[in-house]
Amino acid sequence: LILTESIMQRSSEENRMNLTPLQLGIIARSGTPVFAGIDHGSAEGNSPSFTILVMGTVDHQGMLQIQHITKFTGKLASLAPQPAILNQMMRDAGVTLVFADWGFGAHQNARLTDEFGWPRNSARHMLAEVMYVSQRQLAIYDPVSGRYKVDRNQSMIACIDDIKMGRLKFFKAEAMKPFVNDFTTIYTEYNDKYGTTKFDHKDPDDVF
Question: Checking DSSP bridges between strand 95-101 and strand 64-71, what pairing results, if any?
């Protein structure tokens, strides 16, 4: 409930709607960097996870404004054409850096790099892979694998705090409604034996 209220509060009527990639491209050409995040999903099973593309900008105060979200459902759910679609959408939007999940998405990321020109070590149009681990640091770069290792619990806490504190804003509440459940499905479990808290979700939390 708290997260629901926070998302709606950060989705003010002053914010834009869910911008198209071409609309975002206009912002990029004005000199504002556009960043992206990809969460790959198989679209299979009883409670399927779908591929998500999120794109946004950072203002001069360091606030992240989410400008676009696409959930690859229906005809878009087919995995084979997704790298080409993702590439075109990000090119249209003027994305300079995209973070993509590793694991299930390893093959798709490789296609984005090899077929569509999103290298791992470029100043522009760079793809950075992220893998979730359990570690003391929030995030570290592993030069051996060439991936960023991110502690799942710490990153989720940081993201939730950013939403509550207004450091992460969304587009208009009306346009955010289809994605809100991806945030509100998340809950925590406390382990009395080890004194640890674990995040889990009832439904897919792909957008989060």
Answer: unpaired
Question: Residue 146 CB: number of other CB atoms within 10 A?
Answer: 12
Tokens representing residue 153 in the block: 């619990």
Euclidean distance between CA atoms 157 and 202, whole angstroms: 18
The angle that helices 152-164 and 2-9 make with each other, rounded to 10 degrees, is 50
The predicted model gives 99-125 an average pLDDT of 92
Residue type (1 letter), 134: S
The amino acid occupying position 206 is D
User: Out of 109-113, 131-135, 190-194, which region has the weakest mean confidence (pLDDT)?
Assistant: 190-194
For residue 70, list its beta bridge partners: 53
Examine the pLDDT at 25 and tell me if it is beyond 90: yes
As a whole number of angstroms, the distance between CA 39 and CA 22 comes to: 21
- In sequence order, what E strands does 75-146 have? 95-101, 126-133, 139-142
